[in-house]
Amino acid sequence: MNFVGRMQTTTCYHCGLKSATEIQINEKYFCCDGCKMVYTLLEENGLCQYYDLTEMPGLTAKGHFVSEKYNYLDNEAIQEQLIQFKLGDQAHVIFYLPQIHCVSCVWLLENLHKINPGIIQSQTHFEKKEIKIIFNPSLISLKQVVQLLAFVGYEPVIHLGGNDWLKKKKVNKKQLYKIGIAGFCFSNIMMLSFPEYLSNNALELGSLRHFFIYINLLLSLPVLFYSASGFFISAYTGLRQKWLNIDAPIALAISVTFSRSVYEILSQTGAGYLDSMSGIVFFMLIGRWFQDKSYDSFAFDRDYNSFFPLGVTVLEEGIEVNKPLSSLLKGELVLLRADEMIPADAILLTEGALIDYSFVTGENAPIEVAIGQLVYAGGIQKGRSIQVEVQKPVGQSYITELWNSPVLKNEKNIEKSFVHPWSQYFTIVLLIIAFSSGVYWSLYDTSKILPAVTAVLIVACPCSLLLTVSFTYGNVLRWLGSAKFYCKNAAVIEAIDKIDTIVFDKTGTLTNHEDTHLEYHGMVLSEAEMIAVKSVTRESMHPLSKMITQLLMLEVSDLTSFQKIENFIGKGTKATCNEYEILIGSISFLKSNGIHCDDSLQGAVVCLAMNGVMKGYFAVNHAYRDGMDKMVKRLQDKGYHLHLLSGDHPTEKGHLTLLLGKNIPMFFETGPEDKLAYIQKLQNQGHKVMMVGDGLNDAGALKKSNVGIAVTDQTHLFTPASDAILEGNKIKELQHLIDYAKKAKLIIIYIFILSILYNIIGMYFATTARLSPMVAAILMPISSISIVALSALLSFSFSYKIRSRN
Amino acid sequence: MGVIVILIIASVLVAGGFLLAFLWSVKTGQMDDDYTPSVRILFEDELIIKKKEIL
What we know:
Order of helices and strands of chain B: HHH
Radius of gyration of chain A: 33 Å
Strand order of the largest sheet of chain A: 18-30-29-28-19-26-27
Distance between the termini of chain A: 27 Å
Strand content of chain A: 15-25%
Oligomer: heterodimer
Largest sheet of chain A: 7 strands, mixed
Number of helices of chain B: 3
Shape of chain A: elongated
Helix content of chain A: 40-55%
Structural class of chain A: alpha+beta
Radius of gyration of chain B: 19 Å
Distance between the termini of chain B: 52 Å
Largest interface: A-B, 32 and 29 residues
Structural class of chain B: mainly alpha
Shape of chain B: elongated
Helix content of chain B: over 70%
């Protein structure tokens, strides 16, 4: 923890970023004043243990101090949506804090009451990345709570999503109740059945035998009527839709087992198979729970609401009013501050708009917009505050309409799992065996018809199939998750298996947003020229201009003064600096000033002319992620058809062709609906399409595709609705991940062969009418446990490729 | 032999007690978070005392 001695650059004591040595307290260095302020606050409140638990635990504090940003939280309607419970001087609120990542986070967040006494208690949920705060509204307002969280680096994600998670929790609890009760009944029934197994004849136990059996019968009732109820309901709904799902034979087996056991007990002919029945219900419930345990902190079903802020600042006769987004009306004036999102399509009223549409269109560079022009919902204002007049209600904006498109209405992956047809064949074969053994015994010994037929139905229940499937998918989901590929559910794994076409987005998917930089092409600039250009670009707030300044900063450090400067919004800058007359801007801008330009230049380039001569241009060079070429090659070798859709200009087509090869169809300047239409076209040709994208502009395509994978560089950032979330640096592993997902089916087939072996053994006992409760009681746990173990072993051993690259 | 009946009833009741404890723990949300408590327990004692005061 001691950085003293490393003089030149050191890491920030708070967040671990590389930092200059200027900002420091007591030889603790910080990367920025923000981090230092957080440190000071923590130190004042005696919370420095934060830094002892984990090294450099903090989050870079840059830009979290926009105090006006949360003004909308003063609106009571919004407060009501957020606050769960309010009584007197206690209010409960839950926030999603995606930045939670270490022990220190938990510690600091649970000690917030030391910083502000208005906070009564705070409790974090690490895996869900949530914090529950109980605060005293008379001492601290909701806005102040959020500001405090943002200040210490944990800016809550607040959106219109509502409290859906509450519902999810309840379902989960019900499942746990069922497992608990089934486990209790199963273990007791098993224990009470031992005397029956171990005694040679029934007389030995005397009247105790009836006592044991009746207790067992009593204990099996909750299993049948509560724990197993899910199987009966699912089988019933399946049958009503005239469809035999996997739960149907299971429900049949459970009811046959139970009725035969009841018959045996009441007729005093035997002890029944209640232990096997409750055991198998218990194992199957655990299997389902294992498979369904999903990633709590991810949301896969976000619609556009999640991307927009909860509230906006509206100007009513010059006074700022905070309003919930939902009540925003056409014709209202909205004030947008830096880094705020345009909530609805609107007309720009003031100067200084610099809109970043990268989220909506995939285009990299922010666009300058002139007064009176339309700005679209989803764009982010990068410059100073602007005012816009709303033209359309939120739900009818260009970007949100895409969500309401009828093409996206139908549910995805409703195709039945391959397990269900299997279970149908299984059921048919089962019924044939039961029937033929019945026929056989009717010829030889009619008293054995019923025992044989029911025994067949008891033994050959497709429970093993269900167990195999649920445990294997559960394991595969977990291994994929550990390789940073988070699938929504098991159906996604099956859908991946069928994919034959993969469509990539460019910006943010193949490239990395954060590594975008400019490159200069053209005549070599002298040092004096560079200084002059830099001095001019320094004056403009345009991000491209800033990037040019940064680029030149690496070359020359001096600055010079300029004589004259003229800015043309959306076009470029004209300036006179020392002996140079500088023109810098778009091609059309230079052309209109009489400069001869090469026509081959287009797209996101900034041209530079000095003293009437074209010098060269600055092009945005997207930093492609490592290993993209290899990944593409591997996928092509495996026979996948690859396509590329980009919302950006075709400036890099040549580069991309070089990188990815010629035989990939590439389309540029595609809007969100073009991407959607393209996916649909491929699907109509009979392809199963996987879409890999990142932004809101891919949202339609992600939803329409058979498997939509959202790529993100920080898992806490918003990702559009998708089937799976993949971390950016893992795209290069895509082929291995797909391969592994495909292995799931193979594993299931292997284990299913094993379970058929068990079934044959069981069948032998059943058809010969010799299935004693003890044989059933031995066979059932052995088969279940070996299936679970084999599933874990196989999914582990197949995962070596995705593990070794972790 | 009669004592076995009593013993078995007692054992089922004891097991039932554990079942009730499990159901109660699920109901009160003790199973909601299976990670954070393991972190929390390692924090300095002083923190826990303060929390109790507040509660």
